[in-house]
Design a protein that fits this description.
This protein is about 25% helix and about 35% strand. The protein contains 7 helices and 11 strands. A hairpin with a 7-residue loop joins strand 8 (about 150-160) and strand 9 (about 170-180). It is globular, with a radius of gyration of 19 Å.
Length: about 260
């Protein structure tokens, strides 16, 4: 149970017109030696090391990012952006590093070099809501006294996927969520196009976050004697909210979604 001032931010609280479904993964064709015993690691070792590196992989930066919306009425802006996943406090860090990390909270701190864009950055927080040893962990979006609303409403999972059609495992992150554009940005929206551009900025930042992550994982695998490449199964779909409901209720398949 969350404490005073904390609350779950469920997917229906997202205010974007479009929902997001994505899968970003790295296919490992030659297993690395991450534990330094001069033997290719098995998937269980790779998963544990992946979790240990999570904070480093999930944090990152993107140079010369273009905000397509009219941020704070100053027109479109190009600037360097960054984001950091940080345990909310030391108790959350200890819990995350344990064998049972459920309920650990991460603060997500956003930053931008441009002063105007910085004024519109949206911090957030997530809680570990599920953990399967040697397989995956899932976070759910929450609101906290120090972060307010989270930029996305929904759930995201990280984990290791069983051997694919090529017989190779994949390290992945996947999500179903809806952007929750902050009031600071939303107040300026007086046209449909402005609102669409604001939402596009949120999804483009998320896309930059997870593309940065998978590229770092590929380098990490190569640095430890393995071979990895982007999975051919990677996708990012932005769909109408009603289609998301149909998809989650299994009335339509992934291939039937209309990408916007």
């Amino acid at each position: 149970m969350l404490g005073a001032g904390y609350s779950n931010q469920t997917i229906d609280q997202g205010n974007a017109m479009l929902a997001n479904i994505d899968y970003y993964a790295v296919e490992i064709s030659v297993m690395p030696d991450l534990n330094g015993d001069h033997v290719p690691d098995d998937p269980n070792v790779v998963f544990r090391k992946y979790k240990e590196k999570f904070i480093e992989f999930a944090s990152g930066e993107h140079e010369d990012f273009e905000f397509t919306s009219d941020v704070a009425l100053y027109g479109s802006i190009r600037t360097d952006i960054s984001w950091d996943f940080i345990p909310l406090d030391n108790n959350d860090r200890v819990l995350w590093e344990s064998l049972s990390p459920v309920s650990a909270i991460f603060r997500i701190e956003a930053d931008a070099d441009d002063l105007v864009a910085w004024g519109a950055v949206d911090h957030g927080a997530v809680i570990i809501s599920d953990y399967s040893d040697n397989y995956s962990w899932t976070v759910s979006t929450i609101q906290t006294p120090s972060t307010g609303t989270q930029p996305f409403s929904g759930n995201r999972q990280w984990g290791i996927r069983p051997p694919n059609r090529n017989g190779n495992v994949e390290l992945y992150t996947a999500a179903v969520d809806i952007a929750l554009v902050s009031d600071v940005i939303r107040w300026e929206s007086d046209t449909q196009q402005q609102r669409e551009n604001q939402e596009r900025d949120y999804y483009n930042i998320a896309d930059a976050t997870w593309k940065n992550m998978v590229n770092e994982i590929i380098q990490w695998i190569y640095d430890n004697g393995g071979v990895a490449n982007l999975s051919r199964d990677n996708f990012q779909h932005h769909i109408d909210r009603d289609e998301l409901t149909d998809y989650l209720e299994e009335n339509i398949t992934l291939d039937q979604l209309t990408d916007n």
